[in-house]
Amino acid sequence: MKYYILVGEASGDLHGANLMKALLKEDPKADIRFWGGDLMQEVGGTLVKHYKERAFMGFVEVLMNLRKILGMISFCKKDITQFNPDVIIFIDNSGFNLRIAKWAKKQGFRTNYYISPQVWASRAGRVKDIKRDIDQMFVILPFEKEFYKKHGYNVRFVGHPLIDGIAGREQVSIEKFRKEYNLGHKEVIALLPGSRKQEITKMLSVMLSLVKDFPQYQFVVAGAPSQSYEFYKEIIGDMNVKFINNKTYDLLSVSHAALVASGTATLETALFKVPQVVCYKGSNISYQIAKRIITLKYISLVNLIMDREVVKELIQNDFTKENLEHELTRILESEHRQKLFLSYFDLEQKLGGKGASEKTAKSIVAGLKSKE
Known about the structure:
The protein has 372 residues and is α/β, with parallel strands linked by helices. Helices cover 50% and strands 17% of the residues.
């Protein structure tokens, strides 16, 4: 059967790759065409467009690139029509995907969504569109099933794919990793400033401002695969900071603490049991708009899932050197670290067991076979 998968960012590329592997187990002759990244390309199939070509962040950035985005939407519709898939699988990336889904449903294509748009965060009215345009939704956060149920839409909770991604990774030797990247014997503080240029530019320099105040630790910047070393080097300069590209999981496995940009990385850091401070700073206009439409108490997945403040969030104007220094000092204290570790274990239990990709793939293929 023919599968068309739409992914728009680095985290989606990881989940898309694992889903593709699971689909190929269920349907070894699967013909997969996709918008994604390097990880999906390694699995096989045909890459149409790389997510790097459309990594726009915030309302202002989207508006500035609107002509390009509209052109991609038009191209995507033509490409789907030509490929004529048995199912279109959307992964996160709601702004683009829900537009394609609306069109696709009208054209008679089967539509499945893996990893729900964050309609529970803002614009819950979009649930009406999802019910109309999506045949089956597979959710990965425990509270999403109940959210959709309140809106009269039955979805399937499959567990979180990060559980599989972390459990299935090749284990790294801490000693070997430290030696390979010349980390020495100091405890490591990981800096995860995000994957998009806009967020890295806004946040990394503030994170780096703490280096001189914590000389007993080795700070290490986690480079995103979507950005070049030269880009990071302009911000890092000649500071005594290490840079490790595209090895975030290995870095977290040797880290004592972390400063993390809001997003999937906050959950990844928690699953590695690393104490963290969550950071966010966007353009002022984008932030002011977001503040008016987002109805959540928290921005980090850790706090949202636990429905309480487990990790400290420093957002926009609160994201300062002084506040960051204070919070980093806190998560280095043994008593606070113990509380965090206990909360992290509770978090992992809430996320369900392994097999999110396999459960999703089985349901997608079974759904197609039932339609034959």
